[in-house]
């Protein structure tokens, strides 16, 4: 079983990625030595509190980090090719074709003065030599793929509901059959029933096209429903990544444990787990473990060196040595 | 039982539809009824999707938005026809917490000023020392210290601190009721628990009632006592929170509860759902049940009338659906 899994190729690899925001009062370390990979056909969720760097990592993968942000170090490989080695022109050709984005808040990412047929048609025509009837067919096909009626083709964004706009964004993301889609909180700001429709659309698209996805979010329920593996970030550091069942049922990192315990559910009424939020300035992270101020299991060694990400099981990595204390060596 | 402290009687609010307006009026809230009692202090949840009328209701209660028809009575007096003194008392005893704690502050004022204003406006202290103690006391309740934050400007506080300052400010006035409009929708998991916990403590230790307005049923389930579910301005279902979440009756509420993503990777959404196209959802007939276009149990007479609230068994659980009409032969 494990061996079979290991053979699935990695489509995206992020190695030692560091992104800093260079402010006059020092660099804000938004992503520090982030390492993870996504296998073919896998959805990896990226979770953490606001400000933990999850959107920064996504933007870095897309090479769209805004100034004063800067990628300080690292590699972002798609099928083995490091994106950081490419020229801007080459990047522009590959973006969308190899790496598409479903943005957060679709209401703000569609051009209000263009009809859906124009926005979708333009995006496709910019990358592929397809025009006229064939282009129209293609757009209609894409709308059908995400469960939208054909009449959407002739509508303006303001004539669509939030869920429909979000599905137009998904249709645009899959237009060029990219191997990887990055979805930045694709269902936030949607009502729960509509959220479920959009989430199902994404899952359906993934199943039919075999794309891999990085799904950023903070709703743990949605993660449980949608992803294969979960990556947990805290204060710019990836602290744990593992199969979704393992993360929910046997989280290893103390921060992941806290995150899982704090999920409100409708299954049982339980006492609230009250904790502090982020406790240090991101410009000035402490030496040693990033989670030391909030960790209930902190030891002396944690204050000296930052624990590296270590493999605990297949596709499961943790940046905390406590898993070693817990089980017999 | 004693008189309710707040009584909402067939509150209706419509927007637009005036003499020169070509569009039909939008009914944001229709015939809404709710009683809130002072004793024992309770957390009453008003839940619904965007556009369900929950914020309209909050604004009407807070006196920002006069109703089109119906009444809101506080201790028996209509809040829109209070005299000066009554209004001041109402302003003191009914407080509000909002979703975005950044927008409610004047960015030029230090936190100290926010509290000074409250102390002065409502005459909460005779001496400076008394004022300082009252502020410190309120801040401690929410886990803050005066020397940490009073000299700061709002932008220098974290999101959680800003939200807690709001709660402390409200608490200083010893309100009987706090209207909390999506107080935890914009905060992280750790802060969410902290703010919900403060709400529980205010209810249990200080006997303050809450009207908790939210779209998030899971947090409502964790802390709420009673619950009202709104759908397009109409009360779809009301009762004890546990009754509604564990055993929803209205087809809409059933769909809503089934759509909450379970934080359990081994229990996926049972079935796929499909929403009908938008034009069907904005169904034209104002007399029909508003859930008709999406309802799996729709019947012919659902087209002709909006169902009233029917009692489920003999409890205080009620649902606005003809499925529960005791007269109907089923």
Brief account:
The complex is a heterodimer of chains A (329) and B (330). Chain A is 31% helix and 24% strand. Chain A is built from eleven helices and twelve strands.
Mean pLDDT of chain A: 88
Question: What helical percentage do the residues of chain B reach?
Answer: 25-40%
Question: Structurally, how many domains make up the residues of chain A?
Answer: 2
| Low-pLDDT segments, ≥5 res of chain B | none
Give the CATH topology of the largest domain in chain A. Rossmann fold
CATH superfamily of the largest domain in chain A: P-loop containing nucleotide triphosphate hydrolases
- Helix share of residues of chain A? 25-40%
Give the SSE string of chain B. Answer: EEEHEEHEHHHHEHEHEEHHHEE
As an assembly, this protein is heterodimer
Read across the widest sheet of chain A, the strand sequence of neighbours is 6-7-8-3-9-10-12-11
Give the amount of beta strand of chain B, in percent.
15-25%
| Widest sheet, order of strands of chain B | 6-7-8-3-9-10-12-11
Radius of gyration of chain B: 22 Å
Features:
heterodimer, A: 329 residues, alpha/beta, Rossmann fold, 2 domains, eight-stranded mixed β-sheet, four-stranded antiparallel β-sheet, 11 helices, 24% strand, globular, B: 330 residues, 12 strands, 32% helix
What would you say this structure looks like, in words?
The complex is a heterodimer of chains A (329) and B (330). An eight-stranded mixed sheet of chain A has the order 6-7-8-3-9-10-12-11, sandwiched between helices. A four-stranded antiparallel sheet of chain A has the order 2-1-4-5. The longest helix of chain A is centred in the middle third of the chain and has 18 residues, at 192-209. By secondary structure, chain A is of the alpha/beta class. Chain A has helices at 2-7, 54-61, 88-94, 116-127, 132-145, 162-173, 192-209, 220-226, 244-249, 254-261, 322-326; strands at 10-23, 26-39, 43-47, 69-78, 81-82, 99-102, 180-184, 212-216, 229-234, 237-243, 310-313, 316-318. Chain B folds into two domains: 6-246, P-loop containing nucleotide triphosphate hydrolases (Rossmann fold), CATH 3.40.50; 271-330, no CATH class. Chain B is 32% helix and 20% strand. Chain B has eleven helices and twelve strands. Chain B has helices at 54-61, 84-93, 111-122, 128-141, 146-149, 159-172, 189-206, 217-223, 241-246, 251-259, 278-281; strands spanning 6-15, 26-36, 43-47, 69-74, 77-78, 94-97, 177-181, 209-214, 226-231, 234-240, 310-311, 318-319. In chain B, helix 4 (128-141) crosses helix 6 (159-172) and helix 6 runs parallel beside helix 7 (189-206). The mean pLDDT of chain B is 88. The interface between A and B is large, with 46 and 44 residues.
């Amino acid at each position: 079983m494990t061996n079979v899994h290991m053979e699935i190729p990695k489509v995206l690899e992020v190695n030692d990625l560091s992104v800093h925001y260079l402010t006059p009062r020092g660099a804000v370390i938004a992503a520090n030595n982030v390492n993870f990979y996504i296998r073919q056909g896998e959805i990896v969720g990226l979770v953490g509190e606001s400000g933990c760097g999850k959107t920064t990592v996504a933007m870095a993968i897309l090479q769209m980090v805004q100034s004063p942000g800067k990628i300080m170090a690292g590699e972002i490989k798609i099928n083995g090719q490091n994106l950081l080695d490419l020229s801007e022109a080459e990047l522009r050709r590959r973006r969308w074709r190899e790496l598409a984005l479903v943005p957060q808040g679709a209401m703000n990412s569609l051009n209000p003065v263009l009809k859906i047929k124009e926005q979708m048609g333009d995006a496709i025509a910019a990358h592929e030599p397809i025009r006229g009837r064939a282009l129209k067919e293609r757009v209609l096909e894409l709308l059908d793929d995400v469960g939208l009626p054909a009449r959407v083709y002739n509508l303006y964004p303001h004539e669509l509901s939030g869920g429909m706009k979000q599905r137009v964004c998904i249709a645009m993301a899959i237009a060029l059959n990219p191997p990887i889609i990055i979805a930045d909180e694709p269902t936030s700001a949607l009502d729960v029933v509509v959220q479920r429709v959009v989430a199902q659309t994404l899952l359906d698209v993934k199943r039919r096209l075999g794309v891999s996805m990085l799904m950023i979010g903070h709703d743990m329920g949605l993660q449980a429903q949608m992803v294969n593996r979960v990556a947990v970030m805290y204060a710019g550091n990836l602290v744990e990544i593992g199969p979704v069942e393992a993360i929910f049922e046997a989280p290893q990192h103390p921060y992941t444990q806290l995150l899982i315990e704090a999920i409100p559910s409708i299954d049982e009424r339980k006492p609230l787990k009250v904790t502090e939020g982020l406790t240090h300035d991101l410009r000035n992270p402490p030496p040693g473990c990033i989670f030391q101020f909030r960790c209930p299991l902190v030891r002396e060694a944690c204050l000296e060196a930052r624990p590296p990400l270590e493999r605990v099981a297949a596709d499961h990595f943790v940046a905390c040595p406590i898993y070693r204390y817990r089980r017999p060596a | 039982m004693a008189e309710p402290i707040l009584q909402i009687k067939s509150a209706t609010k419509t927007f637009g539809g005036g003499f020169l307006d070509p569009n039909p009026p939008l009914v944001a809230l229709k015939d809404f009824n709710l009683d809130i009692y002072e004793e024992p202090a309770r957390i009453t949840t008003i839940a619904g999707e965007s556009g369900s009328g929950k914020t309209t209701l909050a604004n009407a209660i807070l006196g920002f938005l006069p109703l089109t028809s119906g009444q809101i009575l506080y201790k028996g007096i209509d809040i829109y026809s209070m005299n000066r003194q009554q209004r001041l008392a109402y302003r003191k005893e009914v407080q509000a917490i909002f979703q975005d704690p950044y927008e409610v502050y004047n960015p030029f004022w230090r936190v100290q000023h926010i509290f000074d204003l409250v102390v002065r406006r409502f005459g909460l202290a005779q001496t400076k020392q008394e004022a300082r103690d009252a502020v410190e006391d309120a801040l401690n309740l929410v886990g803050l210290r005066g020397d940490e934050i009073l000299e700061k400007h709002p932008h220098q506080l974290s999101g959680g601190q800003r939200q807690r300052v709001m709660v402390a400010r409200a608490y200083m006035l010893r309100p009987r009721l706090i209207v909390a409009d999506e107080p935890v929708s914009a905060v992280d998991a750790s802060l969410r628990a902290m703010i919900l916990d403060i709400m529980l403590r205010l209810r249990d230790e200080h006997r303050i009632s809450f009207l908790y307005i939210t779209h998030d049923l899971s947090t409502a389930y964790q802390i709420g006592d009673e619950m009202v579910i709104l759908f397009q301005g109409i009360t779809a279902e009301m009762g004890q929170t546990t009754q509604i979440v564990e055993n929803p009756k209205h087809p809409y509420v059933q769909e809503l509860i089934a759509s909450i993503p379970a934080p359990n990777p081994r229990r996926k959404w049972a079935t796929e759902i499909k929403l009908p196209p938008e034009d069907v959802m904005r169904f034209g007939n104002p007399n029909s049940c508003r859930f008709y276009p999406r309802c799996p149990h729709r019947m012919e007479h659902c087209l002709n009338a909006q169902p009233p609230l029917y009692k489920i068994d003999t409890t205080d659980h009620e649902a606005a659906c003809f499925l529960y009409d005791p007269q109907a032969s089923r």
